[in-house]
Amino acid sequence: MTSKKPNPAISTTTRPLIDPLTDSLTAFSDEDRAAAMKRFRVLQPHLEIGVPLLTAVAEASGHPLRTLRRWLARYRDGGLAGLVRRGRLDAGNGAVAQIGV
Predict the structure, then answer these.
(1) Helix (H) / strand (E) containing 76
(2) What would the 3-class secondary structure string for 23-35 be?
(3) By CB neighbour count within 10 A (0-12 exposed, 13-18 middle, 19+ buried), where does 45 fall?
(4) Disulfide check for 82: which of 23, 66, 74, 97 has CB 3.0–4.6 Å away?
(5) How deeply is 39 buried, as exposed, middle or buried, from its count of CB atoms within 10 A (0-12, 13-18, 19+)?
(6) Domain residues for 66?
(7) Does residue 8 belong to any structural domain of this protein?
(8) Does residue 49 belong to any structural domain of this protein?
(9) Total domains present in the chain
(10) 76 in a structural domain
């Protein structure tokens, strides 16, 4: 029985290969891009040379391990654009419960 090698031209994910909303930082402000790059620089030792998040990266950066794991998951899911801070869905609503007025 012959095993087939995966075809690199066929993507194994459902995400399009080129999606301007997730693959490009040009859709975001300068501040958002700078923040995403800052987060990437924190993750870079782990991504490029395999430095463990728990030990060196978390201690050197001063960020909680949970934050680094969240950033790593977002980077793996959406690339650099995944590291842009997401706005709240309820931002600007100003919904405050009124009690017996």
Answers:
(1) helix 65-78
(2) HCCCCCCHHHHHH
(3) middle
(4) 74
(5) buried
(6) 20-83
(7) no
(8) yes
(9) 1
(10) yes
Q: Given the structure tokens 């430095």, which residue do they identify?
A: 51
Q: Residue 4 corresponds to which amino acid?
A: K
40, part of any domain: yes
**pTM (2 d.p.):** 0.63
Q: What are the φ and ψ backbone dihedral angles of 73, each rounded to 5 degrees?
A: -65, -40
pLDDT in tens, 11-62: 444 444 445 444 567 778 889 889 999 999 999 988 888 888 777 888 889 9
Percentages helix, strand, coil for the chain (3-state, rounded to 5) are: 50, 0, 50
Residue 43, H or E segment: helix 30-49
Nearest to 81 by CA among 41, 18, 28: 28
Taking CA atoms, 89 is separated from 18, 83, 85, 100, in Å, by: 26, 17, 12, 27
